[in-house]
Every structure is written in C-alpha cells, then in structure tokens.
Amino acid sequence: xxxxxxxxxxxxxxxxxxxxxxxxxxxxxxxxxxxxxxxxxxxxxxxxxxxxxxxxxxxxxxxxxxxxxxxxxxxxxxxxxxxxxxxxxxxxxxxxxxxxxxxxxxxxxxxxxxxxxxxxxxxxxxxxxxxxxxxxxxxxxxxxxxxxxxxxxxxxxxxxxxxxxxxxxxxxxxxxxxxxxxxxxxxxxxxxxxxxxxxxxxxxxxxxxxxxxxxxxxxxxxxxxxxxxxxxxxxxxxxxxxxxxxxxxxxxxxxxxxxxxxxxxxxxxxxxxxxxxxxxxxxxxxxxxxxxxxxxxxxxxxxxxxxxxxxxxxxxxxxxxxxxxxxxxxxxxxxxxxxxxxxxxxxxxxxxxxxxxxxxxxxxxxxxxxxxxxxxxxxxxx
Length: 382
Ligand code: GDD
Ligand code: MN
Prior knowledge:
Spore Coat Polysaccharide Biosynthesis Protein SpsA, Chain A, 2 domains, elongated, binds guanosine-5'-diphosphate-alpha-D-mannose, binds ligand 2
C-alpha cells in the first residue's frame, strides 16, 4: 500500500483491512506500507498501529512516483514476506477492503490476476468530476485499443490481487515510474507472462481525506508509455524487418564483391550471394530477433526451416506479383513492391510460428475457465 500524506486515511483504512483477516481461511494477511517520507506524519500513525497489528510492515524512501514506490514495495515483499498473493491497494479509502476475501477466492480458483474494475459492467466512479471521468475513460480507451489490451476494461486500476509466481516473472526495469502508466505497464507485463485475468466490478467513490496525488506529469508519462507498449508488442516484427532489410545489402555486397573483385560469373555469383544473405539473416534472427524464445528445435533444424520459409515467401512474392501484373494490370514495380510485402509477412509468420515456435509453458493462460465463477455476471462463489 503506497502512501503519501495519508495520515488521516491510514488510521481507519489499515484497521479496515485487518478486519478482513478473519474471513480469510487460506492465507495469512500482511499489510506493507510504502511511504515516501510523507511530511504529514503518516509514518508515525503507521508505527503506532504496528504495536497493535503484528502483520503490519512499513518501509520508507524518497518520493520518486507511485510506480517507484510499488517497485520497492514488491521487491521488499518478495524478499522478506515470501508472499503467495500480492495486492495493490490505495491508502485513501477508495478501495473497499471488504472485497479482499472475494479477490482471494478468485485467486484460489486459478485467476492469477484479479482486477478491481471501475469500468467493467457493474463498476462505477460516482464521485469523479467530469474532467477526471473523461481523462480516465479516454486514457483507458487509448491503452486498450492503441496499446493492445482490448480485453481489459480497467487498465489503470490500483486495486489488484496478483499471484506472486507471475509477478516474479515480470521485468521490473521496464515498468514505468509514475501513476497510471505504472499500472498499465505492469498489467501489460503480467499478461505477457501468461496471467489468467478476471475483472471484478468495483465502486470507486471519493477519497476520505486529502486530495489525489496524481499530476499532469503522470498523464504525460501515460501517453508516452502507450507508444512504448505498442513498440514492445511489435518488437519482434520490427526487428525481423530490420534484419530482412540488412539482407538486401549483404546480398548486393557479396554479389558485387564476387563479380567485380573476384571475377566470378554472374550466374554463379547470384545464388552464392542469396545463400549467404539467407544465412546472415538467419543468424541475426536467431541471436537477436527471437533470442529470448524457448524452442524445442535444434539450431540446424531451424536453419533448415528458415530456408523453407524463405522458399515459400519467394513463391508468395512471385504469385502476388504475377496476379497483380496480369490480372489487375498494375505497374510492374508496384506489383513487385506489394509482392515483396506479402512475401515478408508470410516469411515472418512462418518463422514466428514454425521455425522459432515457442514451447507453450504450462501457464495460467492455458487453464480452462471451467467452474470459475464470473462475478461480473453476478455468480456467487461456492
Ligand atoms: N509512496 C507513494 N509515493 N505513494 C503515492 C505516491 C508517491 O509518489 N503518489 C500517490 N501515492 C499513493 C497515495 O497516497 C494513495 O494511497 C495511492 O498512492 C493512490 O494515489 P491517489 O493520489 O489517491 O491516486 P488517485 O485516486 O488519483 O488514482 C487512483 O486511480 C488511478 C487511475 O484512475 C489510483 O488507484 C491509481 O493507482 C490509479 O492509476
Ligand atoms: Mn485516491
């Protein structure tokens, strides 16, 4: 639970959380407060409460943004508290603590990420100003459809329950430092690591005391972050295109070298240049584009498949070229450009889903949803 100037709020929010402990049978409940040296004495209040609650913990640090506070807190928790589940929760009373047992039940039913969702059907933000509502809705819409997380209604929620085993797979260095963008980039990382997600509709009323700490700067980082997420998603494809482009120069360079310097016959130089550029493309893709994939085929098996894919891509390129040229009467250069694009796309998909086919890890992503309750539809848990 991150805090900055929440002295008035933590007085009742923390006891409200511990009051849930008796309704939880499968887990022991701890609260870790991550305070950024709040000048209002938040830490004194928390220290006072620690005498009463032995499972209450406090760490402090410099104020570097909500995301930084969460990163510190999550690292501390995983090192010192060996958690099974990690919650994110605000300290200002906007998150209803009585939902904690429900979140845990859902986690026990196989959901590795439970999101308290203001924008899923049934959720609401009754006290948001028109401006805040607009920012929140437009922001979520952008991250969903531009950032590539269309299935999730509330991508910036600060109320979540996460299985530690998935959280530990996330690359924390990549996550943003500030408010909304930390939340959306963490969500993105969790999904990338196979999190099995469910949204629970929540009502998000006004905070009890004080005011929101999220600023204009948080909103700016949020926008920049969408582009970052988008790039990360298509990173392999972009790298593949760069490699393909480099192959053109390798091919041409070798061809010129063989014919102009070594005096090799043109008909012989061309296939040598083609083969060498296929090999350099292969090596670059192997050690760069797809280097963090876990696959089950051997290096030489991949090299073979890469050649096959290049052959198929060549045929696709040629077929599209002929089709556009003869049937659609297009200009030959344009026909060839479109043919090259079609070939490159084919090539990418063949190599991505065949040559460097990922081993499907037994992550939650593959779990069946059978028997899992759907709170959004009003189903009750057993
Ligand atoms: N340690 C620390 N450092 N805590 C912080 C900081 C910080 O820099 N900034 C905010 N917090 C704490 C607050 O004290 C509060 O407990 C919690 O983080 C949420 O901050 P608020 O300032 O109350 O945020 P909000 O209510 O405007 O925003 C909520 O909705 C956003 C999306 O609309 C939060 O749930 C955000 O996480 C969420 O992205
Ligand atoms: Mn708040």
